[in-house]
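2024-03-11 09:14:02 DEBUG pipeline.ingest accepted 1 chain
2024-03-11 09:14:02 DEBUG pipeline.ingest length=130
2024-03-11 09:14:03 DEBUG pipeline.predict start
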Amino acid sequence: MKKWLLFASAMCLVIVLAACGSNNTKNKVENTDTAPVTADGGAASSDIVITASNWKFDKKEYKIKAGETANLKLESVEGMHGIKISNTDYTIKSGGTTEVNIAEPGTYEMICSVPCGAGHVKMKTNLIVE
């Protein structure tokens, strides 16, 4: 019985550690651009790509205009990730695009919604609605 419990615990640990991908540096993205991404206010709909890698997003913040529709796309280059926008019902799946229209200006925290390993808790960024 103890061996079975030890085996099951080890398998759970392996699954959790493997959830965020491999150490494949071929697809590694460096965070060299710290400027926020701003949606184009002149278009009826704007496109913003959010890139997620192991335990981080590529930008510290993203900006959209209040009351305008923006298409937010999530690309996961390392591991599996998802996004939940705080104080809204919006979620974005890895590889998916979600139309977002937030009327109330403010800062909305975006968190990784897929448990992705040791750094999952710190995987956050902001959506600023102007």
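2024-03-11 09:14:41 DEBUG pipeline.report The chain has a mean pLDDT of 78.
2024-03-11 09:14:41 DEBUG pipeline.predict end
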